[in-house]
What does this fold into?
Amino acid sequence: YFLSAFDFHLGPVDEIVLSGPQSHPEYKEMKKTIFETFRPRKVVAANYFENKRISEVAGTVPLLEGRTFEDKNALAAYVCRDHLCLRPVSTGQELSGLLNENPIRRRGEQ
It folds into this structure.
């Protein structure tokens, strides 16, 4: 566990937010895209907002703040690296492109 924690510390880390209802047609595909490839340095948060108000859920998880829609039928995935967030996407194919376009490098690597 120590080596995994040390690797995580070396970073950088992908922060991925999946925001939208689980019943959305693209939800399963986006979730599959997030977890199908081994990414040891990732943090994933999901906001389903089916049983709670959006603001109530987002206030409990800082990663979700500002990454929600008032439209309960909307679905989006957000990917952030080194505190910079890429544009939100709404399909599994677009999410796959974001996750694979700039491979994560350790600090100091070119």
